[in-house]
Amino acid sequence: MTPFCSFLSAAAAGDDDIFPRLVVPVSVIVVLATHLATPMAGNGMKLELSRVINGRSRLGVLKGIGRTGQHSLEVPGCLLYTHLGTVPHLTQDTLHTVSNLPSVTQVTLSNIAEHHEVLEHFKDGFRKFAGLHDTVLYCSLHDPAAPCPTGYTTNKTVSVWGSPGRIELTVAKFMALQKTVQPDWYQSMADGETWQNNTSRKRVQKSVNRTLAHLDECLLVHQNSQELEGVEVFGVVEGGDILEERVRSARETAKRPVAGFCLDGLQTGSMDQDLRNQLTAAVTKELPEDKPRLLQGVGHPDEVLACVEAGVDLFEGFFPFQVTERGCALCFNFDISPDPERAGRAPRAVLELNKEDDAARDTEPNGELDLDQTQTMYFEINLKDKRHQDDFRPLVEGCGCYCCMNHQRAYLHHLLVTNELLAGVLLMIHNTAHYLSFFGAVREALAKDRLDLLKRRVLGKRGGMDTSAKEPRD
Amino acid sequence: MAAHVERGTDSTTSIKNMSLKKSLSAAASLTLQIVAECPVTKARACNLMLPHCAVNTPVFMPVGTQGTMKGITVDQLEGLGCQICLGNTYHLGMRPGSDVIEKANGLHGFMNWKRNILTDSGGFQMVSLVELSEVTEEGVKFKSPYDGKEILLSPEKSISIQNSLGSDIMMQLDDVVSSTMTGPRVEEAMHRSIRWLDRCIAANKNPHKQNLFAIIQGGLNADLRKACLHEMTQRDVPGFAIGGLSGGEEKDDFWQMVTLSTDHLPREKPRYLMGVGYAVDLVVCVALGCDMFDCVFPTRTARFGSALVPWGSLQVKQKQYAKDFRPIDPDCQCPTCKRHSRAYLHALFKSDTAAMHHITIHNIAYQLNLMNSVRQSIVEGRFPEFIQTFMKRMFPSRDQYPSWAVDALASVNITLE
Ligand SMILES: [Zn+2]
Ligand SMILES: [Zn+2]
Q1: Which residues of this UniProt protein bind Zn(2+) (chain A) (predicted)?
Q2: Which domain holds residue B112?
Q3: Which residues of chain A have pLDDT under 50?
């Protein structure tokens, strides 16, 4: 495989001026990291792995999370995606029709930053501000489902995009925000603009260095902030598509007193799955076993499965929202029960309909075919399609969600063509429930050695991945 | 002579049988139990028994134009205590069409609403929404905005669609003219509405489970109103609506037409005042003897961030609420007020449509609670006091009371303090 050259020489060749610590000997850095770790000791978060398959896929429970440590989260799993603490389209009543909701809610600084002054006034933290009572709060930088224009990061700042436009964050501003948000976990400030094709090696190195520098600065402020006592920091692994930089970023981040890792710059659309697999596997290999790895920006079921195999524990749960926004319902099959009688309990796929979808899409008059077209058609049904107008079946036969228990495709079709707000509500309920059940199936498959069966179910007739895979740069 | 007597006997018997049958069929689909009548005003509290459940009146009926209540699920609507809501025949007849809804077991099945539904006739939308409509004795002719095809909405067609929708209360097709119009057209419309009522009654395929209401017309002309009332109250319909108002006429004219109508409507049948939903209008018109109301305003205004409160309304999107950490109405028990602050809702309006749902829920709760309080006060014999308290809360001072409301209430023996 690719030889990993020393991160020290790589850093020395890069912009070490902004990251002087990298040129000190390794042993010193280790000591420094240990020293940093001391004041953060005593937190209760613990990852208990019950199985590790092929040395990579991990099944377990993240225990003792949240400030009082009363929550837990099963891995592999996903976080609850929100807009400003609200699952898109849903109120607490409609959200709680979904069972087994993740105990961790994700909010993003791109939503929150513009309300900094309000939160400072409020004083009691974002959770209370948003009327969220019983959840672990994770604060990330960007919204995984919203476009984030590139070209606005500097050595000392990153930018987030909210409703008033761009908001520039320094570490000081970033940490001041965290103090008012008072999350349980937060993603450290990061320069993640290296996902575009052909980003230069120099730029990738710079992003790794900056991200490490941001992390150290964040940690320094963190340790001197009483408001953040008991709050966990997730370090961010960057490195674009350069294996060597990925490994350097992972190794260095792992030396810091972080509670977990965010894998950034690997999101859907930035690279194909094969390349993502290689990079992810190389990164997770460098990360400590006992800390969770959260992969940012990846949500398609097939990608989730591949990334679980590459050692990822957590995903951002934004995919059901994207499906909802295009007027579709998730319908893919993940039933791995060998007992056919159980089939009624787990959602069954609508395979014959998916085939029809192929034909329907070809003739769709306003069919704007996005890049994910070939992938999505196997996972979802498009309810705007006219053939659902007198289809009185639930979205997915056997689905126990509020939408499927109470409504029919014809009604959803009607709500979509008349642009009624209830369409988003009902689709979001179904898609969230379906997606969460899929993660349940992933865990069950890991527990029962049925991952291959699950892959066959989820991928349907698609079989293998794209074969024109790109190699990582080394 | 003998034959005449016989015939007379026969006809008496058959009339008795007919009226017995009628009252039986009426009992099966609609009964009105008067629970209490205000000793001072014309207000009354009733239990309106409809096919899907009992409705406590006075009642505000939220409008779900397209077979959905603006982002609120049927369970949420039921949770708010809503016992009857509206669907629009024109919209639903266009999309998804009555054949689809019929296959879904009516509008109840299509939207999975277990309580009562009232549908309008479609005539009002036709005249107000569709430019190229033409009214003849046959019906309303218009061009479909979807495919440009010419469609005739006749009384028979309107009832046929409403029969497919399966609503608990159907409205007759009436000849709608602007409430500010005067002259012979108003009279023509009134007479035509009477003729169309007879055609609607004849066309109703489900009189045993779908109640057809007549709509009193006559514009702002008291004589025409009276003539219409005189004719329509002779028909055997289970309820009456007061139509042709709330269309931009002077409030002084409005309330006089309302009170004239309730004066001539039978006590034992429900009275529905169409298109009225502002809080002050509701309280005053209950005092004038109306039982049922509907309006798109509370749900429409919610989507623009306007929350209804006992002191008027609160524009959540305004900057002044960005740091206001109180609920919309500290006394409101709705799910929105129990959980969220004005500041959070203000912020959420910039991020997600759920902000609208929160206000919609609050506004429906506000309307339903208002009517519950009105009813409670009637039952407990303190409606006059309720009105005094309500007005004091709604307006900062006595001189801001709208004069029409003062006059209307004076006409039913309430002198505002
Ligand atoms: Zn479902
Ligand atoms: Zn409220």
Answers
A1: 399, 401, 404, 430
A2: 31-295
A3: 1-42, 341-375, 463-468
- For chain A, list residues whose CB is within 8 angstroms of any CB belonging to chain B: 83-84, 86-94, 97, 111, 114-115, 118, 121-122, 129-131, 162-163, 389-390, 392, 402, 406-408, 410-411, 413-415, 417-418, 420-422, 424-426
- List pLDDT tens digits, range A35-89: 444 344 345 799 999 999 999 999 999 999 987 889 999 999 999 999 999 999 9
3-state secondary structure of A315: strand
Measured CA distances, B395 to A156, B371, B373, B374, B402 (Å): 55, 19, 18, 18, 9
pTM (two decimals): 0.90
Which chain B residues have a beta carbon less than 8 Å from that of A118?
Answer: 322-323, 343, 347
- Residue in B342, B352, B364 to test binding to A, most A beta-carbons within 10 Å: B352
> Does B230 reside within a domain?
yes
Q: Is B120 tagged catalytic?
A: yes
ipTM over 0.90: yes
Pick from A393, A422, A381, A425: nearest CA to B104: A393
Ligand closest to A397 (CA) is 1
Tell me which of B120, B168, B175, B291 is the catalytic residue.
Answer: B120
In a domain, B213, yes or no: yes
How high is the pLDDT of residue A194?
80
pLDDT at B125 (0 to 100): 80
Which amino acid, A221? Answer: V
Annotated catalytic residue B253: no
Closest by Cβ to A122, choosing from B69, B325, B361:
B325
pLDDT of residue A450: 95
Please tell me the total count of domains within chain B: 1
Q: How many CB atoms lie within 10 A of CB B149?
A: 8
- State residue B13's pLDDT score: 40
Question: Which residues on B lie below 8 Å from A135 (Cβ)?
Answer: none
Helix axes B251-264, B279-287, angle to 10 degrees: 40
For the domain that residue B84 is a member of, what is the CATH number? 3.20.20.105
